[in-house]
Every structure is written in structure tokens, then in C-alpha cells.
Specification:
Layout lengths: L1 E6 L20 E7 L6 E7 L5 E8 L5 E7 L21 E7 L6 E7 L5 E8 L5 E7 L20 E7 L31 H14 L2
Antiparallel strand pairs: 1-2, 2-3, 4-5, 5-6, 6-7, 8-9, 9-10
């Protein structure tokens, strides 16, 4: 069983040999796997920078590698050299996509996805070919989109997006990032409490799971 989330605990349980064992920021995201037989931890790793992260919807591929998605406010998130977006886009948070090896001992791929607003990747699907499709929401007026798609400009406070990436993580030549007007959030201001990052992360996770 795979599960992900967010923690601010300095003593969060991690296992030997994983990517990150000590918390790096106000809150770090985590990815873990529990044995279906007895519930014991197969692996547990933190993954984050000096800001706040949380992760949603861990998905394995055919090779047993694990994809996690979510959001980060860290400018030094552990992005890989082949990332689609190697630098933080700014604003309240960028979406992040991470691929871990089957034991969570290596980050095989990691990228930001976002602009100058608030960006969150909510879900992911992985094809047998290795192509990855992620969905989420954004308030960024400069969110990366491509020519010829259904919608190229932000239409509301938040719009949904769909992004397709090639197996290696780089964009496909015909990448489509479609902003769906139907995915607009309510016009109510998105409330944040910068003095309480843990509560902020919890609110965003609740919103990601259950909607606005």
C-alpha cells in the first residue's frame, strides 16, 4: 500500500537508505509504502526543501517506480537536471511531479510545474508507454501552455489544467495543456495563513481531495 502526505514532525518515521530522512523545512511531504501482509513499513521517505510540500495520489508504474504529485513552496526543491521546469515559478506554490525508484532510494525525475500564482497538481495517470498525464489547478496568468490548445489564458480566479509529458519527463512535441473553464474554482478569495504553514498545507490538501 502506497500513501503520501505532509508532516512537520522532526521524528517522522523514515527507513534506512531512502532519499531523505530529516525534515528540511516548515513541513515536508512524504511518500511511504506499507506491507499488505502486516502493515509494517517497506519504506518511508521525506522529500522537500526549506518551504512546505505535500503530496497526493502516489501511482506506481510497471517497473515499480513511484510517481507522486502535489505542491511545493521551496525554491531549492530537489529538481533533476532533465526537469521540464527547473526553477520555481513564484507565487504561493508550484506544482511538483516526482518519480522515485521502487525503494525510494533515488529521485529519478522531479520537476516544478507552475507560474507566478498558486499551482497544484492533483492527480496523475501513467501509460504503459511511459507517458504521463497530470491534472490540477492554477491561478497563474503565466502558466505554461502551448499553441493551438483549447484555452491559453486564465479565465477565472483558478482554472484547471491538463498536461502530458513524454516518458523521460521532457514535453512531447505535441504536448497539450488545456485550461478547462468548467474547472474554475469559486470567486471567493483563497485564504492563506503564512504564519501557520501546517494549517495552510492541511487546508490545501483538504481542498485538493474534496474540492472547493
Amino acid at each position: 500500500m502506497l500513501f503520501t502526505g505532509v508532516t512537520s514532525s522532526a521524528d517522522f518515521p523514515t527507513t534506512v537508505g531512502v532519499v531523505q530522512r530529516q525534515i528540511s523545512g516548515q513541513n515536508d511531504g512524504f511518500a511511504a509504502k506499507a506491507s499488505a501482509r502486516d502493515g509494517s513499513l517497506v519504506f518511508s521517505t521525506l522529500l522537500g526543501g526549506s518551504g512546505t510540500e505535500f503530496y497526493l495520489m502516489p501511482v506506481p508504474n510497471a517497473a515499480g517506480e513511484i510517481y507522486v504529485v502535489g505542491t511545493s513552496t521551496s525554491r531549492e526543491f530537489p529538481i533533476t537536471a532533465d526537469a521540464f521546469q527547473p526553477h520555481y515559478g513564484g507565487g504561493a506554490g508550484d506544482g511538483v511531479l516526482v518519480r522515485l525508484d521502487a525503494t525510494a532510494s533515488r529521485v529519478l525525475y522531479a520537476t516544478y510545474l507552475g507560474g507566478g500564482g498558486d499551482d497544484l497538481i492533483r492527480g496523475i495517470a501513467v501509460a504503459e508507454s511511459g507517458e504521463v498525464v497530470v491534472v490540477g489547478r492554477t491561478s497563474s496568468t503565466d502558466f505554461p501552455v502551448t499553441a493551438g490548445v483549447a484555452q491559453v489564458r486564465l479565465a477565472g480566479d483558478y482554472d484547471g489544467f491538463v498536461v502530458k509529458l513524454a516518458p523521460a519527463g521532457a514535453p512531447l512535441p505535441d504536448i497539450r495543456a488545456i485550461l478547462e473553464q468548467a474547472q474554475l474554482s469559486t470567486t471567493a478569495a483563497y485564504q492563506r495563513s503564512l504564519s501557520d504553514a501546517q494549517r495552510d498545507a492541511a487546508r490545501r490538501m483538504d481542498d485538493a481531495l474534496f474540492g472547493d
